[in-house]
Amino acid sequence: MALCLLERSAPLAPIDHPARVLRWTFRREDESLICELALNTDDSAYELRVDPPLNPSGGAAELFTDAVKAFQRHVAIERMLVDEGWMLEGFESERIFRV
């Protein structure tokens, strides 16, 4: 079996860079909270964002190099929210394109 390798002077940049964003919306009375999980802009880590932040002093985004750990952290946040009276109102998975 032969392999064909092409040489290029510079790597081609993608025209559009697809990324998947997972979004959970929680509601408690008239309050809403959104939790998003996606790869960061350079695809080097998973970013878990909570809006509005649970910590008013900042730090609403957490970075993880392991997807399982990012999901485990999301589950911990969800468990805490449910214990505090929040309900999951919706979930969506959206594909976005970035340059």
Main sheet attributes: strand count, strand direction, barrel closure: 5 strands, antiparallel
Indicate the proportion of strand residues: 35-45%
Please provide the count of β strands.
5
Mean pLDDT: 81
Ranges where pLDDT stays below 50 over 5 or more residues in a row are: 1-13
Provide the gyration radius in Å: 18 Å
Reading the helices and strands in chain order gives EEEEHE
How do the strands of the widest beta sheet line up side by side? 4-3-2-1-5
Number of helices: 1
Shape: globular
Q: Find the structural class using helix and strand composition.
A: alpha+beta
Head-to-tail CA distance between termini:
37 Å
How many structurally independent domains?
1
How helical, in percent, are the residues?
10-25%
Descriptors:
99 residues, alpha+beta, five-stranded antiparallel β-sheet, globular, disordered N terminus
How would you portray this structure in words?
With 99 residues, this protein is of the alpha+beta class. The chain has one domain. Helix content is 17%, strand content 43%. It is built from one helix and five strands; from the N terminus they run ββββαβ. It has one helix spanning 67-83, and strands spanning 17-28, 31-39, 46-51, 61-64, 87-98. The chain has a five-stranded antiparallel β-sheet with strand order 4-3-2-1-5, with helices on one face. A hairpin with a 6-residue loop joins strand 2 (31-39) and strand 3 (46-51). The longest helix is centred in the C-terminal third of the chain and has 17 residues, at 67-83. The radius of gyration is 18 Å and the shape is globular. Mean pLDDT is 81; it is low at 1-13.
